[in-house]
Amino acid sequence: MTPSDVIAAPYGSWISPIGAADLAASGHPVEGGAYVGDDIWWAELRPTEGGRTSIRRSGLDRQPVDVLPAPWNARTRVHEYGGGSWTVSGAGRLIFSEFSDQRLYLLEGATPRALTPEPPRPASIRYGDLQIVGDEVWAVRESHAEDGTITRDICAVPLDGSGSIRSIVGGSDFLSSPRPSPDGTKVAWIAWNHPQMPWDGTELRVAQLKDGVAQDYTSLIGGVDESVLQPQWIDNEELYAISDRSGWWNIYRVGDKITPIHTAEADFGGPPWRLGARWYVQLDDGQLLSTRTVGTDTLALLDPTSGELRDIETPGITSIGIGQARGGKVLLVSGGAKLAGGLRELNLGTGELAEVRLSVEALPESAYLPEARAVTAHGHGREVHSVAYAPRNPRYRGLDGELPPYVAFVHGGPTSHVAPALNLVYAYFTSRGIGVVDVNYGGSTGYGREYRNRLRGQWGVVDVQDVVTAVTGLAEQGFADPDRLAIEGGSAGGWTVLAALTTSDVFACGASYFGVAELEGFVKETHDFESRYIDGLIGPLPESADLYAERAPLNNVDGLNCPVLLLQGLDDPIVPPSQAERFQAAMVAKGIPHAYLAYEGESHGFRKQSTIISSRNAELSFYGQVLGFTPPAIPTLELWRPEEA
C-alpha cells in the first residue's frame, strides 16, 4: 500500500479486521505446562466451551488434543482465584479439581473417578496447590462450614481412594507451597494470617513429620513485614526461598543462617494471587533458572554456590512464567510486545525457543498490531511507569490537526503488574484509531517493595493520581486529545476507574468491569482471602471507618459529571453484583447517563465467548457515543439518560 492509498478518517472510525468475536474465538489463555513421557501437557481456557479449563497435549501435526474432555473443568476455587488445580504423574495419571463440585478426581482411562468424598454442601470443600507425593496427592484444603467459618490445612489424599484424607498441618488462616524434605521426615510450607496479604507478610515454617502429620513447627524466615515465597529443599536441612527483606524479592539460602544467594535491586518473585506460582526452578546441574523483574522480565541462570547471575537471551520476551524443567529444557509461559503469549519450550543448550501452544489461534497482520512504548512520567514527586500503544492501521491515518482519543487501562489487584504485551484487546482499540496506555501505578509490583507500598493507606488517592499523571503526560506531549480521555479497569482497577471519575475532571467517561464501588459492604460481602486487604490499602476498621466512607466512589457521586459503563458477572464472589447495583442506583439518582450490563453465569473475569463479544462491543460503542466517533459495524449500546426516568 502506497502513502496515497492511506485514507484520512476520524480516529475511532477506522475499519479494523479485529472484531470482538476474534478476541473470544481465537483467544484461549494457556498456563501451566508439564512433561508427561514424550508429551507436554498444559491447561487451557476454552471460551467457546462455556469457559471451562481443559487439560490438553499436542497430538498429530502438533495440533492440541484434549486429555480432559468436555464438560470436565479443571479449576479450583481455593482463595477463589485458585491455582494448582491439576497435577500429573510421569505415567500420565491426571489428578484435578473439578470446578462444579470442587472434588478431586483421577483420570487414567476414559472417565475420571472421584478421590474425595462428596462435600456436605456444593463446593464447600476445595483443593488446590496439588502435587503428587508418593502414593498420595498433597493439597491445600479449604473448608467452608455452614455457619460461614472457613478453615484451611494441608492434607494428603490417597491416590487409590482406599483411605481417609489425612490432615498434615493447619494452624494459620492461609497456607501454601507444601514441600516434603527429600528424606520425607519434614515438611516446609508458607503460612500467613489476617490482615496480611501474602505480598505483605508470610512465614516459612518447617516441622517434623510423625506418622505423616506435622508436629510443632519452627518459623525459619519471614513475619508480618516480610514476604516469603516458594520454598524448595536443597537437602534435608536447608531450603531456598524468596524474600523481600532487602526491599526486593531475592532468593536466599535458609537454614541455621539466612544468606542471600545473589543481591539485586530486582524482583525474583511476584504477588502470589494464585497457588502454585513459581519464579525459579532447580536444574539437573544444581543451578537455578530464575526470572527477575524490573518493569519487564529477564530469564537468568543463578549459580547458588558462587552467586553468579548470567542472563539468558530471549529476544522479544517481556513476561515469563517458569514451568517444569527436564533434561536441559524448560517450559515457559511467556510473551512480549510482538510475541503472543503462550507456552514455549526453551532449549538451554542451544537457546532455541519453540512454541508449544500459543494463547491465540491466529494473529492479524502485524501492521494492525500496535507498537509498545515504555513511558515514565513524573507527578506528585514520584515516577509513574506505563506502556503506551498508539493507534495503528495501515489503511488509515487521522484527520489533519486531530489528536486521537486514548483509553487508560488500570490493572486489577491492585498488587499486580503489566508489561509490554501483544494483547488483542489493545489492538481491538488501536486498529480503530483509539490509543491505549496501560499504567503501573504506585502499588504495582515489579519495581520493589517501596513502589508496591506506595498504595498502603492510599488506595483511591495514589492510584488515581498516577493514572492521571500517565494519561495527561501523553496529552501534554501531543500524543492524545486531552478532551477525549477515557479510563477502564476491572476489579480493583474498576475501583480506580470510579474513584478517578468521581474525584477528577480529566476523563470524559469510564468503563468499570466488576469494580469495587464502596467499602463497608464490600469487606462484609467479599471472599475471605481479600476480606482484610483493605486494612493495608486504606486502614483497619473501626478506626478507619471515616476514610472508608470518604474514599468510596459511591459516596462521591456528586463529583461525577460524565457517563459510566458498568459490566458485572452475576456469580462474582469477589466483587458481588451489589457493588455495581449500588453505583448504578446512585447514577440514576443524580441523572448520570450510563449503561449497566450484567451477565448470568459469569464470575470474576469474563470467560464465555458470548460475554466477551458483548462486553467489548458495548465498551467500543460507549466510547464512540461519548468521545464523538462512530465505530463501523458495532451494535449501538443503549445508554440510560435522565429523560428516560
Q: For this entry, what is the oligomeric state of its chains?
A: single chain
Rounded average pLDDT = 95
The number of distinct helices, counting runs of at least 4 residues, comes to 10
Overall morphology: globular
The radius of gyration is: 24 Å
Major sheet summary line: 8 strands, mixed
Detail the poorly predicted runs: none
**Helical/strand content category:** alpha+beta
**Cα end-to-end separation:** 51 Å
* Total strand segments: 38
Helical residue percent? 10-25%
Task: Provide the β-strand percentage band.
Answer: 25-35%
Major beta sheet, strand line-up: 30-31-34-33-35-36-37-38
Written description of the protein model:
It is a single chain. Helix 4 (462-476) packs across helix 5 (492-503). It is built from ten helices and 38 strands. It is globular and about 75 Å long. The model has no long low-confidence stretch (mean pLDDT 95). The strands form nine sheets. Strands 30-31-34-33-35-36-37-38 form an eight-stranded mixed β-sheet, with helices on both faces. A four-stranded antiparallel β-sheet has the order 2-3-4-5, with no helix packed on it.
